[in-house]
Design brief:
Blueprint (H helix, E strand, L loop, with lengths): L1 H15 L5 H26 L21 E10 L8 H15 L4 E3 L2 H11 L9 H11 L3 E10 L2 E10 L5 E10 L3 H15 L7 H10 L4 H15 L3 H14 L4 H13 L3 H14 L5 H14 L3 H14 L4 H13 L6 H8 L6
Parallel strand pairs: 1-2, 1-3
Antiparallel strand pairs: 3-4, 4-5
Helix pairs in contact: 1-2, 3-6, 3-8, 4-5, 8-9, 8-10, 9-10, 10-11, 10-12, 11-12, 12-13, 13-14
Length: 359
């Protein structure tokens, strides 16, 4: 594959030399470099092994892992027409994503990817999608199942109507409705998540897994609102607004690790590296009760913020080894390796680290 890519790049360059002007040559050269970069990612994906870095003591890792069903929570339409409750769409999506990811039996699509897809497709929150729109969503996200719906605030009560569809067949897998007060938001989400997991034939959460879910969620509605608003603003590249919202979130719930981690991203985007390091460090310190996947992700972000490239590589390498069906972790590993100036396949890294040069 890499040979084909390089030959294509060379051909483009050679053909451009005698015929085109300087600016055109530059454009073609950039295109050729882009092709080579894509080829590098493909080669990396082809040769990356499923085995972890031996220096990470995170427990046994299976030699092979079957691809899990991918679930994308797309968001929820606000039927109230009240902008002050718009945050509930992001909040419910994040909470349901956490619920469905618990137990590591399903692969959930990150909210960042969903937000990017919505922007690319100019897609608003909806309580139903046409078949062709659903097909475009599936192609963009690579999802097997999609979750979406609507909510309405009536007095002091909130009604959620949630639908889950087979993304490829277009068939409705489940339809769930729950009503409660804002103060009962976490209990409502737990009920919805439990029913969706049941329809997906995913085993019930253990007590320790329930505790990990709770550690990932805000402890009160005020923190939930500010955290949701901060995430939405961060995904719109409004780092300044996200920083303000996330600071309020960690004030309302100082022990919420994911809010501290998101705040670190906002500080970093604004160029405040020292404050980003402080927030990333606090997230890492608070992450011990999180599920393994979230805990390692927070750890990787911490090492990134601290410019600890070797440790970041080890963490992302182990994370990608545990979850090889998640391309995001492979790309983050590649990014960490590039930052350290040592981009090479995981398989080659392990061979080099073996005392006899094999493995």
């Amino acid at each position: 594959m890499l040979g084909v890519v390089i030959m294509l790049a060379a051909t483009l360059s050679a053909q451009s030399a005698p015929k085109w002007s300087g600016p055109t040559k530059i454009a073609i050269g950039v295109a050729a470099l882009f092709v080579v970069a894509i080829g590098g990612v493909l080669v990396y994906r082809q040769f990356a092994t499923l085995e972890p870095a031996t220096t990470i003591s995170t427990g046994p890792i299976p030699s092979s892992v079957a691809a899990r069903r991918a679930v994308a929570v797309l968001g929820f339409k606000n039927l109230s027409g009240d902008a002050s409750v718009a945050w509930l769409s992001t909040a419910l999506a994040e909470m349901l994503t956490t619920e469905l990811a618990a137990g590591e039996q399903l692969r959930t699509i990150p909210g960042e990817n969903v937000a990017r897809m919505k922007s690319d497709l100019q897609l608003a929150d909806a309580d139903s999608f046409a078949a062709d729109t659903l097909a475009r969503i599936t192609t963009s996200l690579g999802s097997d199942v999609v979750v979406f719906g609507s909510y309405a605030v009536i007095g002091d009560a909130i009604r959620f109507d949630v639908r889950m569809q087979d993304a490829r067949a277009g068939e409705t897998v489940a339809a769930v409705a729950e009503t409660g007060r804002e103060s009962e938001l976490f209990a409502i989400v737990s009920k919805i998540g439990s029913r969706l997991r049941d329809r997906l034939d995913v085993t019930e959460l253990s007590a320790s897994q329930v505790a990990s879910v709770q550690a990932s969620l805000p402890s009160n509605p005020a923190a939930a609102r500010m955290y949701a608003e901060g995430l939405a603003q961060l995904r719109l590249n409004d780092a300044q607004a996200a920083r303000r919202s996330l600071e309020q979130a960690v004030t309302a719930d100082p022990k919420l690790p994911l809010a501290h981690s998101a705040l670190a991203l906002a500080w970093s985007a604004l160029g405040y590296d020292q404050r980003a390091q402080q927030s990333a460090k606090r997230a890492y310190e608070l992450s011990t009760s999180l599920a393994r996947e979230d805990r390692m992700w927070v750890e990787g972000r911490y090492h990134d913020a601290m410019n600890e490239h070797a440790e970041a590589i080890k963490t992302y390498q182990a994370l990608y080894s545990f979850f090889p069906d998640n391309l995001e972790y492979g790309l983050q590993l590649a990014s960490a390796q590039t930052a350290a100036g040592q981009f090479e396949p995981i398989k080659e890294q392990r061979r080099r680290s073996h005392p006899y040069g094999c493995g």
